[in-house]
Amino acid sequence: MKRILLILLSASVVISCSGGGGGKGITGNPGIKGELVPRGSSKSFVAERPYGMVPIPGGSFVMGMADQDFASTPEKAMPKTVTVSSFFMDETEVTNAEYRVFINAVRDSIARGLLAEAAGEGGGGEEGGNGGSIADYAYASKKTGDEATPYQKFLESQGGRDGYDESKKLDKKVPLTYNTSAYPDEKYAEVLESMYLPAEKRINNERIIDWSKIKYNYQWEDVASAVKDKDRGTKYLKKESIAVYPDTTVWVKDFNYAYNEPLFDQYFWHNAYKEYPVVGVTWDQARAYCDFKTKIKTDYNNSLKKKKQKAMRFRLPTESEWEYAAKGGIQNATYPWGGPYLQDDRGCYLANFKPKRGTYIEDEKKGTYTYTAPVKKFPKNGYGLYDMAGNVAEWTESPYNNSTYEFSSTLNPYLSNQAYREVKKTVRGGSWKDVGYLLMTGYRDWERKDSARSYIGFRTIQDIPAGAGKFKRTTK
């Protein structure tokens, strides 16, 4: 009798702990017909392939200079067999055009915030206003007809929420203009003018944005420290405020005795270079770009009537992920195309690099470039990735240490507890100014995370859940 009573008590505990129901967030009775049956669709999760990215299937490979090491530097790349999980990766390096979308979005967000503060209560601004006056740029909650949800009203009554104030939600439907002849009123002009360099700092009286004011604010959690302390909380949140405009002076600073002024003047903003890889970007700026990319995808998913799964985070690749992807599925690939040669059977170069001493462009027919090249100008590797060797070297998430390979894990190697603390960051791939040896898939290099160079860019990746089914391509 006592045993039967214990079984009944155990069953009641299981039922009471099975908790919330499914469907639209409304709680109800657990299970189906008295059975513990998970609610929701039984369909498997399908990983949605982000636009411009390709899937990299997980696997094992020999990491490091397994083929040849002319410089005899085994401490930099001790061969080691490791395993990496599946992920999506940008098929090209992030281009000037893509990075301009980022900085313009940050600029617009700051402009809208300043205009909303200046608009105050709106004074006649309406939901869906067309920007006819500064009143149209008031916070969405201040406008006529804006119906707040009970939860939003609660947050406002409590003084907002730490890190986000629902009452200060911007109305992004109202168009912005930076054309002075199209400014709607004098107050709008006053606000926008505060974002530009003052007259006394302008060169040739050119009216340009003061990009030092255009900063992207975000926060991330130091999970490694939280796990170490067996704790979670806001004290592990790291808040960042990053000036996002690339350093265009790198074309002059990196080469003291060369005439590179045309690139300093034009490389980032001129449409002739829009499909060229962005350079002059620090490690911190590259990470800010990744966070922005995650945010816009998350915001889009949340805007859908039929909610999607939370977007996986975009990030920089670890150096093991980068090297694995660079090999293109070929074990011990010296270069991304496999073999040890830098030219194909027609004598055309397979990457953009410095072919000989003092020779940056040997022959146009061979496909070389004086500086960087537009993306997709050289053959892709076995995974569909372009320019994994040459053109520009690429930031990775990983810190640089000569003994990294000695103590890092063989499963998804990464030094998470040193990632942001370590000033030196691993850079991979070689660039347009490097000789062929530095383009090898196993070759390692480093740069300080606060440094910007004319030969370093980046590309992003996104994790693929281990239980995901076949990939689904997104539309443009």
TrEMBL record:
Residues covered by the Sulfatase-modifying factor enzyme-like domain: 52-461
Keyword Transmembrane carried by entry: no
Presence of keyword Lipoprotein: yes
Domain of life: Bacteria
Entry GO MF terms: formylglycine-generating oxidase activity
Protein keywords: Lipoprotein
InterPro entries according to UniProt: CTDL_fold, Glid_motil-assoc_lipo_GldK, Sulfatase_Mod_Factor_Kinase, SUMF_dom, SUMF_sf
Full protein name: Gliding motility lipoprotein GldK
Gene: gldK
